[in-house]
Structure formats: structure tokens, C-alpha cells
Amino acid sequence: MRKTSLAVAVAIAATGLFAAGTAAAANSPAPGSFNVTANVQGSCRVTSTSDIAFGTYDPADVNASTPLDQNGSVSVRCVKGIAAKVALDQGQNGSGTCAAPARAMKEATSNELLAYEIYSDSGHASAWGCDAGNDVEFTAAASNADTVLTTYGRIPAGQDVGLGADFSDVVQVSVTF
């Protein structure tokens, strides 16, 4: 009888282990989860510029009564949805203020000045400067595309300037957001 009781006890114990193993196998693999997070940094940067290359200015003939116009551009990339402001300083030879820029190119050997202006509109009505009243504002439509802003340059007609082959200036661009 002891053999039978022992055999029954072993069978019951084995059944219990089998049931426990089945229950553990039902929860395998055990479910779990984790979070994935990120923060998008707000940023803007000037990605490229193109020069305003006026070419030849002739104050005694063609440009005696007609200004000389030429365009360039400033490309800016910002994170989508950022409202940005693009300002242009007065250049290295400017004598005005941010509100009323008075830009000039300087001839390399004679130091003579040739006045010019940069506008934010093709009608040359809005001088592009470096304060809240005359900077250029936009809201970025996409993070992976540049916003290209045209710079409308003009040398006023009839300036009393001497011969010079190397008139130039450098204008700094800044972006705030």
C-alpha cells in the first residue's frame, strides 16, 4: 500500500508541476511597455546668400536719370511654425540708423563712396534695415526647406562719383526668432 500511496503522491505532484508549468507558459512572453520621447529644438539659420552684383553704373549717361537695380537673396531655414525676423545691417560704410539705413559702397583705392539701398519689395518702397519697423518677417512653413527672401538693390541715379572699378560693401544678415 505504501507503494501505491507513494505512486499516487508522485503523480499528484507531477500533475501540479505540469499545471504550474502550463500557467507560466501562458504568460510568456510577459507584456511590457516603455515610452519614446523627444523635444524639438527651435532654431533658425541663414543657409545661403547671393550677392547683389550691380555691374556697371554710369552716372554721366545711362544712370544720370535712371537708377541701377539688381537683386540678390537671403535663404533662411527655421523649424516649422517659427516666426522669424531677418535684419540687414547698414554695411561697413553705412552712416544712417537701423530705422533709416544709409548704405554706401567704398572704392578700394580712392575711398570714394557710392550710395545704394536694399529694399524688401520689388517696388523699392520699403528699405530693409535692422529694427522691428523694417526687418522682414515670415513664419516657416517647413523644417526641411529654405525660405528664400529677395533683396532688391538700387543705386540711385545721378550720383557725383568718380571712376572706380572696385566699389564694394559687406552687409551682415541676422535672424531672430
UniProtKB/TrEMBL annotation:
Q: Does the keyword Signal apply?
A: yes
Signal peptide location in the record? 1-19
Spore coat protein U/FanG domain mapped to chain residues? 32-173
User: InterPro entries annotated for this entry?
Assistant: Spore_coat_component, Spore_coat_U/FanG
Q: Which UniProt keywords apply?
A: Signal
- The question of whether Magnesium is a record keyword is answered with no
Please give the Pfam families that the UniProt record associates with this protein.
SCPU (PF05229)
Q: What is this protein called?
A: Spore coat U domain-containing protein
Naturally occurring in which organism (per UniProt)? Cognatiluteimonas sedimenti
